[in-house]
Input
Amino acid sequence: MGRRRPDTLSLVAGLAIVVFGAVLLLDRAGTLDLRLGAFAPLACALLGAILLTSGLVRRD
Amino acid sequence: METHEDDNPTTPAPDPSEAPTASSAATGGAAHSSPDPGPRRLYKSTDDRMVAGVCGGIADYFGIDPVIVRVIAVALVFAGGAGLLAYVAAWLLVPDRDAEPDDRPGRTATIVGAIALVLAFGALSSVWGGQFGGWHWTGPFVSLVFIGLAGLGIWYLASGETPSVGGARDILRRAGFGLALLAVCGILATAGAWATAAGGGVLVASVVIVAGIWLVAAAFVGGARWLILPALALALPAGVVSAANVNVDGGVGDREYRPLAAAQVRDTYRLGVGRLVVDLRDVDLPAGDRPLHVDLGVGQAVLVVPRDVCVTTDARLGAGQANVFARGSGGVDVDWQDEREAPAGTTRLVLDGDIGVGELDVTYEDPDSFAHDHGPGAAPGNDACIGGSRG
Output
């Protein structure tokens, strides 16, 4: 019996959200100075990664 | 045996309601007496759909380009929402081409669809006038339809299932689920943003990380896709608040400070959300540097200064507009620096501004009239500084 394949969408979304949360945490802790100019592409990358994965998973 | 497309020329899927084609007669061999094909039937398209396949089905029925139908449908959406209601009615009433008889719209769907059609005509008549031109009550219904569609859209995004007719009750159930998810996400977004602005950003970020780790772990035991949307709803608004450095410690509302003596002037004026006015026109400030810090989360901060005071400004805005006398700068991540020197014996107000989202205004004018008459074209200022109102 083969091993169950991980759910790609949950995996990618989870990793992206962990990275996003870490950036948020560093900003709040004062280690990082997050500005809106940097936040916008970061948010786009987060959403883009999730949507792209969602589309690719559905196509499979 | 492997089948190639070339061996099997593509032909449109036969419509069960249409008469047998010549090819089927030729290949079938056994000629049979064809029953009366009956009237042409309208079906939702299964292979050319943007939402539910209604426009594709109509185009197929009339033998025209689906884009034309879609353009007309979108145009009708702006005709009092008639297009939207008609689309919903068609969604509910028109069957899928390959639907089993049991999957065809039931009685409830027929009734809901008919009501939607009546409302659509009502909405149209209110736009075009005429006998039923007084129908203004369709607005709330159109809003309800919009809300329902939003719910369906959210459900679709969250579940990943393709929308299909499963009866009006099924559609309402899905729309309800979507709206409930939307409400939960709205609450999470508001709570996350507010908590971050109130100093709980570390906690919110930690919750976001935990949600992410949960998703990663759940990916190996079947996944937890339902968690993606709430996690994003919590993370993104909190991120905006954090990046804009919005702080609501100072409270919410309108604050106006008008000190009468230099001793009453505070070093820091702070407000979370609202309009903050600091009017120093009645104060006789001593010569020399007078530091002043203005901290606003969201809203407008107005600093009114006497004409004999020179103002040097260093302000940061997450997003918004800084207007210092006749000069201004706006956008995202605005760093406004206007270093000015004052002649000997003159007061120099050293303004340090920190605005999350909103506007910072420095002016000589009355704050109430200023709200409607400022920016480029207004009277130049900072005449008390060396160099005056240089650009």
The first strand of chain B starts at residue 252 and ends at 257. The interface with chain A takes residues 160, 196, 201-202, 204-209, 211-220, 222-225, 227-228, 231-232, 235-236, 238-240, 242-244, 318-319, 332-333 of chain B (CB under 8 Å). Chain B has nine helices and six strands. Chain B has a mean pLDDT of 75.
